[in-house]
Amino acid sequence: MSTELLAPLDLAFWHLETADHPMHLGALAHFSQPASGERDSTEILELLAARAAAIPRLRMRVRDVLLPVGGAAWAVDKEFDVRRHLSHVRLPAGEFAESAARLAGELMERPLERGLPPWEMYLLTGGPGDPFGVLVKLHHALADGMRAVAIGAGIFDEIAGVGAARSGRGVIGLLNGGRMTRPVPPRSWLPGPGQVAGLARGRIEELGRAVGVGASLVGASLARAGRLDPRGGAALSASSSGTRRLATAVLALDEVQEVRRVAGGTANDVLLATVAGALRRWMTERGDQLPPADPSALVPVSRRRPGSPPGSGNKLSAYLLRLPVSEPDPWTRLYAVRTGMDRNKAAGPLRGAGAVAVLADQLPPLAHRFGAPLAGNAARMLFDVLVTSVPLPRASLSLGGCPLRAIYPMAPLARGQSLAVAMSTYGGNVHVGLVADAKALPDVDRLAQATQAELADLLTLVR
Predict the structure, then answer these.
(1) What pLDDT, on the 0 to 100 scale, is given for residue 365?
(2) CA distance 135 to 407
(3) Average pLDDT over residues 148-175
(4) Are residues 133 and 222 in the same domain?
(5) 99, 126 contact by CB (below 8 A)
(6) For 297-346, how does the pLDDT look when each residue is reduced to its tens digit (9 = 90+)?
(7) Which end of the chain is more exposed for a tag (fewer CB within 10 A), N or C?
(8) What is the pLDDT of residue 373?
């Protein structure tokens, strides 16, 4: 893996970034000290350094190439030094979770250095006996949610029953529920007549889908432009400042599943309805006028096939979902979310305005390079908030024998966006990470509390 062209969507993410709007995602993991005795911070830092250095993808940086024009490639950083990517920050003793979240928000403001492999890792420690945290930042060109999990798994200890987490096969097998895919036999590079016809048909189908997505995108943007009203939903429509704030919440998975069993649909439907209700509750409590039109959520969908290698580029599409914030009844909100998601799934992830990411595959590299500013400014015309779920292994994870207790995913904010909500399930809980523009949403902690209150209301209805 000495040189590898950036996939079209990776290239788009790379060029979408500006100093004020970095395009990295992240995760804040909390660990408790093992029963056998407290681990020294120096020892943990050395362990992180050794394991990060052993992951080939983390030794790659982005460099421009002559061909294709406007393109870029991953190349091994010949001067790679893992110490340039690792930092240790000591937090005040006590209230570790609050201090770690505050610092994580500030660190997420800072762009990654583009001349180096685009990632950073921070060890956050408190007083003696306190838990510790690890904050990971990965450029979106380097990883989507699935690849981030595969890369991050290389940092954890070996996962029982699967083998070394640093093995790509072990990680992908774990994400597939332990089912290993059969290796694909090598094919000749020279296609036969049947393959040529198949490739032509596939290309025509791709172009047809792209035209359909483009038409849906234009239609959705025009319709949304007519609905935008600065009098309502002031926080979500505020100007971007480039500042960041992280708030976290924990939801009990068995409570989410209890609501799902009665309401039908999926656990993700329940979580999306919880976000919608939390937004309504939060806007009302802060005195905001509810928006005249319900806000639109971009809900990412992975297009990565089971068993695909982690280095095969971002594979994303998305659904657009109207969050029923104007609806006062929690049960009706949940039904509206379920109906909207069922409609999206019936159409498929490659149709509709939410599938804008698939257009990246149809554009030449030069278009990504020069069209990025226009595309970055267009996000505000498409959706109000990003809501994503990040899959995690079901096994218990640890670092140097220290058990992982919580992991809060953090999604990037597009230009013109004030809020991104990411959720991951681990250890019987759903961990919610809310990344907000710190000036637009200084009270995002109250929104995090509202998610817990909203799930409690749904639970009351089904009991």
Answers:
(1) 80
(2) 10
(3) 56
(4) no
(5) yes
(6) 999 887 666 555 555 566 677 889 999 999 999 999 999 999 999 999 99
(7) C
(8) 66
Same domain, yes or no, for 209 and 290? yes
Distance CA 119, CA 84 (A): 10
**Tokens for 15?**
């060029």
Quick check: 135 and 26 in contact, CB under 8 A?
yes
User: Is 311 within a domain?
Assistant: yes
pLDDT above 80 for 435: yes
pLDDT for res 222: 42
pLDDT > 90: what percent of the chain? 49
Do 163 and 216 lie in one domain? The reply is: no
The structure tokens 């408790």 sit at 32
* 3-state secondary structure (DSSP) of residue 245: strand
Residues 147, 276: one domain? Answer: no
- With respect to residue 403, please indicate whether it lies within any of the assigned structural domains: no
- pLDDT at residue 423, rounded to an integer: 96
Count the Cβ atoms, other than its own, within 10 Å of residue 177: 9
CA atoms within a 13 Å half-sphere pointing along the CA-CB vector of 386: 29
Q: What is the pLDDT of residue 124?
A: 96
> pLDDT grade, residue 59 (50/70/90)?
very high
Distance CA 233, CA 16 (A): 26
Cα(196)–Cα(191) distance, integer angstroms: 6
Residue type, 33: Q
In a domain, 192, yes or no: no
Among 298, 313, 278, residue whose Cα is nearest residue 413: 298
* Number of domains the chain contains: 2
Can you spell out the DSSP letters for 298-339? EEEEE-PPTT--TTS---EEEEEEE--TT---HHHHHHHHHH
Domain interval for residue 37:
3-175
With 0-12 / 13-18 / 19 or more C-beta atoms within 10 angstroms meaning exposed / middle / buried, residue 80 is: middle
Measuring CA to CA, which residue among 204, 220, 149, 153 is closest to residue 391? 149
For residues 145 and 54, membership in a common domain is answered with yes
8-16 and 365-378 helices cross at what angle (nearest 10)?
A: 50
